[in-house]
Amino acid sequence: MNVDDNFAEHRLSWFRPSILQKGLGLILVPLLLQGLFFFQFYSLIGKTEALARTEARQSQLVEELNKLTELFTIAWGTIIQETFESNRIGAIDPDDYRRKVDERLARLKELSPSGNFSELLIHVVDMSDKQYDLLREFRQTEPGETSLASFAKYRKLKLTLRPYMHEAKLIDQMIRDERARLNGAQQEASEHRDLIKVAIVAGGALDIIITLLLLVFLLKNITERLALLVRNAQLLPKAEPLQSHVSGTDELAYLDQILHQTSAELQKAAEYRRAVMETMSHDLRSPVQSALITAELLERSQHTMAESEESVKAARQIDSLKRNLSRVVHLVEDHLTIDKLESGTASLEIKSFNLRAAADEAIDSVLAQANLKSVELINKVEPILVEADRGRIIQVIANYLGNAIKYSPRSAPVTISSQNLGSSVKVMVADDGPGLDDEAQALVYQRFQQNVADGKSRQGFGLGLAICKMLITHHGGTVGVQSASGKGSIFWFILPIDYEGE
Question: Between 1.10.150, 2.40.30, 3.30.160, 1.20.1330, what CATH number should domain 19-217 receive?
Fold first, then answer.
């Protein structure tokens, strides 16, 4: 299955949430919680409004009962007054009393609940009718009535008051009951208001906490997986094995899958390239080495021949052949070295050695090249013990020295020195060559780069400094150059004193 098929399969898998869907989920979950909260909040508000209406009705009911009780009290006072003082007109007119009582009773019927309260209203209506009849009857009494008539009024009043006491108790109990209901409604309304306040605070806090927890979980999940993806992406150009797969089924996991597929394909390509390089190097180096041996044999036989113009010419040709064959051998070896360093198959033989002694050995290896130009090689390296691959470090120093000799003018000194940096040592090779401008300094450690600032063509293939950089980097160090056009150059590298491995 190729990448396009994987992508199509990934996009068609709706049960696998993408990053966008996870983000929408982060928004939707708090929204759903808010919806449930608002539903409960609306329900509480509805109950509170119902309690408020009940409270208002109970309050009006108690008020109407108080007004009705006041009317009854005034009516009885008027009746008693007209019973014992026949010549006086009472404080209330019967028809006005009847009108006010009817208004109160109608209002009570509107406000009263069903059940016992309605039965009590029947008794109240009956009592109000009796009061009205007494008021009309006593109001119609002529002035100067006899004591017998007054006694008759008294007896009738007494007979009427006797059931009234029971009715009055019922009305009083009714008022107390309604006041109790009013207090209960007020208390329940207060509790619901407190519950609403608690619900607002708790709901808001819960919503914030859940949102923050979901946000932290999502961000942590994405950042951790993204960090692993970045590390895998950084390992890809180094041709190093990738770390574990990114978990999940979203775009990050899919991209990591592509990186692992690419890494596997790159490893296959690298293995194929190494196989080709080894085959090519073997097939190329073997005949070149044979040709080089043949040239050396010809050179030896040339010494035994009599010197003549032809023999001298042949000697020059043989010498040129040897140099060219040596260049080809070195080119093949350089390519093999680079390939091993890039693939990570190059092994280092780490051991402790004296850096100054290694510099002396490197100087000896390029001494013949220096003598051809009368270049003086000066060793100022301190006798520091370092842990590294001695042969590789000598190779780097010799390459630096050979490069400095190549670009130095005749009879100019080339100095190698060192600087102890504590946990590392800096080795510097200084020459009086043409120097490098900024652009050349940025490219000097890349492959196939040669300095042509002096306008002269140089031998070699521009791989030496690239190999030096790879070797020092393989040791955990760094390389660099300090130069200016026309002012010479200082090529340096920093090497850890104690090798810690990669």
Answer: 1.20.1330
